[in-house]
Amino acid sequence: MNASSSTSSVPTSVSCHRSVDGGCPEPRDLQAEPRLFAVSNSKLWRRARLGAMAGNDWQAAGGAFEVGAMTVHQGGLYLASRLTLWKRGRVGPKTGNDWSEVGTLPGDPVAMASHEGALFAAFENRLWRRGVTFGGTTERWLAIGDAYGVTAMTSHEGRLLAVSDGLLWARTNVGSETGSDWLDVGALTASYPPPDVFAMASHGGSLYAVFNDTLNRRVEAEPRMAGGPWTAPVWEVLGDAFSVTGMAFYTTTWG
């Protein structure tokens, strides 16, 4: 997957713990575990730490030119770019653009998510599901309903969640031609106007989102006042995440 230019810009530097000779040693994983990956600045990045205020602690993990939406589906890391669906091979600072073409896209998705064993994408204000033609010989994308203004999407605690116009929405039906079957599940933040959200991910029961050029983890909803409505959720700022267009937790080896 090659391209000559990029329109995004995430981390401008990568943190590391220097070795005795002053250089940054290459990270080596003794055991693969889920780690947060993001795409931006024509590159694939891996988050080193997920603790609060960890700053710009991203490690370069390879190339990703003309990046778009990204998700993990059935154990593989998938990226949408140039009307094409790509699957990642190796990851690491010297692995380059190790992406394999695995299918075409009818548009450029603003968001992708894997939910209940199926791959979903949002583009042109429609929700699409990847399926197969009669006989199961060729994969294709099926429009299943509306997705107006969706900018980010993920599967979280058994629900397909999307962000649109500052609100979180849960899809109640993923069947064919189910229209605008979304349930409003609350404001994303307490700020107004609401921030633009360009990526979401779910891991270990926590919801992660990128907005205001930061990586955030949803802590919990504030307790409801007696007889009053639910207030906005609380988000913990984990660090920088400039111009991320997609992110996902992915289990793989490094190098």
Task: Please provide a written account of the structure.
The chain has strands at 34-40, 43-47, 58-63, 70-73, 76-81, 84-88, 99-104, 111-115, 118-123, 126-132, 139-146, 150-156, 159-164, 167-171, 182-187, 197-203, 206-211, 214-221, 233-240, 246-251. The protein is an all-beta fold and 255 residues long. 0% of the residues lie in helices and 49% in strands. It has a single domain (34-220, 229-251), classed as 5 Propeller (Tachylectin-2, Chain A). A hairpin with a 2-residue loop joins strand 17 and strand 18. The strands form five sheets. Strands 3-2-1-20 form a four-stranded antiparallel beta sheet, with no helix packed on it.
Question: Top keywords for this entry?
Answer:
single chain; 255 residues; mainly beta; Tachylectin-2, Chain A; 4-stranded antiparallel beta sheet; disordered N terminus
Spell out the blueprint of helices and strands.
Blueprint lengths: L33 E7 L2 E5 L10 E6 L6 E4 L2 E6 L2 E5 L10 E6 L6 E5 L2 E6 L2 E7 L6 E8 L3 E7 L2 E6 L2 E5 L10 E6 L9 E7 L2 E6 L2 E8 L11 E8 L5 E6 L4
Antiparallel strand pairs: 1-2, 1-20, 2-3, 4-5, 5-6, 6-7, 8-9, 9-10, 10-11, 12-13, 13-14, 14-15, 16-17, 17-18, 18-19
Number of strands: 20
The CATH superfamily appears as Tachylectin 2
What is the name of the CATH class? Mainly Beta
H and E string: EEEEEEEEEEEEEEEEEEEE
What count of structural domains? Answer: 1
Helix content: under 10%
| Shape designation | globular
How much is the average pLDDT? 81
**Largest sheet features:** 4 strands, antiparallel
Number of helices: 0
- Report how far apart the termini are: 19 Å
Beta-strand level of the residues, as a percent range? Answer: over 45%
Class by SSE composition:
mainly beta
CATH second-level architecture: 5 Propeller
CATH topology (fold) name: Tachylectin-2, Chain A
Radius of gyration: 18 Å
The low-confidence parts are: 1-27, 223-230
Taking strands numbered 1, 2, ... along the chain, how are they ordered across the largest sheet?
3-2-1-20
